[in-house]
Design brief:
The complex is a heterodimer. By secondary structure, chain A is mainly alpha-helical. Chain A contains 13 helices and no strands. Chain B has a 10-stranded mixed beta sheet, sandwiched between helices. The chains are: A mainly alpha, B alpha/beta. The complex binds adenosine-5'-diphosphate and magnesium ion.
Chain lengths: ~300, ~250
Amino acid sequence: MSLRSSAAVVPIDERRAFIQRTSRDGLTRRQAYSRLYIAGATLLLAVCILPLLSVFSLAVQKGMPFIGWRFFTANAAIPNLVNPDAVGGIKTPLQGTLSVVGLALVISVPFAVIIAASLFEFRNRFMSWLEVLLSTVIGLPSILFGLFVYAIIFHLKLAYSGIMGSVALSMLMVPLIAIQSLDALRAVPDTLVEAGVALGLNRFSVMFHIILPKARARIFTGVFLALARAAGETAPVLFVIGMTNVATLSPTSQQTTMTTFVYQLLQSPYPSQRDECWAIALVLIAIVLLFNIVGRTLLARAERSK
Amino acid sequence: MELRDVRVDFSGVCAVRDVTMGVMRNRVTALIGPSGSGKTTLLRSLNRLHDLTHGAKVSGRITLDGLDIYDGSIPSLLLRSRIGMVFQRPNPFPGKSIYENVASGLVFNGIRGKALIDDIVEQSLRSAVLWDAVKDRLKQPATDLSGGEQQRMCIARALAVEPDILLMDEPTSALDPIATQQIEDLLMSLKAITSIAIVTHNMQQAQRTSDYCAFLLMGEDRAGELIEFDRTDKVFNDPADPRTVDYIAGRFG
Ligand SMILES: Nc1ncnc2c1ncn2[C@@H]1O[C@H](COP(=O)(O)OP(=O)(O)O)[C@@H](O)[C@H]1O
Ligand SMILES: [Mg+2]
């Protein structure tokens, strides 16, 4: 109380001088904290980046010699005792990935968008549970989707085929795209929706003519990020697509994708085939990177045009 | 505070240029002009807020008490503790009480002592004409206040560190007329303890509250330029530039 009343009679300039002095005196300490924080952040960043960089550089180092036109267009060559260094191309798994992931995309996008639109429109307890469920599914180990489809194949006595892989991948992609789309829909300003409603549009028209067009770029972002994720997945497809040595885009035949091909090669006794894995890894990194970049560019564009 | 040939670029695109003016001690200096003329951009260059914006570049010379604020002679942390800022929308720190909000600048600047801080919080709230309204609920979340009260609390928060200069970016544009009136009255009394630079697009407000006035306008290439800087009565009653005459007469902008 005594300090309080004495502080009240201190002339304003004196107190200003005191505050500024204290602030200046503490400056070295505050700057030191600031530097410490930046140093710590940099260190952690390095810890995160170093393993990534080493994987990447190894992939480039070991994989680059394989890369060439032939690598993408030739069928796999089987090394044998006479010709242990035979290395073929990845025509088969490339088409396999294209077919399996492409079909998964066709299946997931409509499902995901409809789910997102429903979650957006209908707000009740069931819907919020569904939302929680979807977010949870995103975090599940992807092998579970593979197991699920495997169980279906087993019980219904179906055949291994590309479609089965697409279904398993869709189970991974639908929640990813749906949750991202839901965020996109919710980011549309209420004022736009109100403007539409005030014009007499019904909910369906508001959704299709106002909300979805506005949210489109962010939804595409979600689609590309999900594609990036799906193209790199092995576990969901491994048990359900079978295997092929003949390049085909047909979803009903058995398939080999880039990732399951790596899985096969890794079990090979021939060093040349194991090295080839790095080349495939390099191609996969490039594909995933491309999808990510496209997705993020779209998002950045959407943010800017807001 | 003196500005000489100040210019701000965003990623190589000029937003405002050719600004030579001053922010006078214990006076209110208004920045007026149509939207997009670079008022906010200019104001934010005065406390180096553009440091946070990637691609932003400030050139020219801005001095505080003769020291260039961009050449490192004043650390930016220190600079910002001497220059307070009030934003267009009230931005109380969420999850903090009224008291904690007002005290935050002091605490972050290393001021210790409950009695002293109590006292400064009270005085700052009094200076912001908010004390009587909140003195019984200092521990309540600041976000519970009304918009006008929140804005006055933000002014108190800025005043608590006894800044030499207070920057205000359209502080009343999100407020109703009564709250606006209160803030305008407040400016008059704040002059006694600090210097104020205020952005406003309301010319009556500039005329009512300011002693000096800077008029900015977008040039041909959409970059803002300083057209005129003078005493407010001179700018409004006897402007030197025909474009100022037009703007004040409401012919564009
Ligand atoms: N962070 C930023 N990045 C790029 N351009 C900006 C940024 N901030 C402002 N600008 C540009 O600077 C110009 C002046 O904007 P601003 O200072 O906000 O004007 P005012 O406050 O007078 O309405 C505008 O053309 C705006 O596009
Ligand atoms: Mg502005």
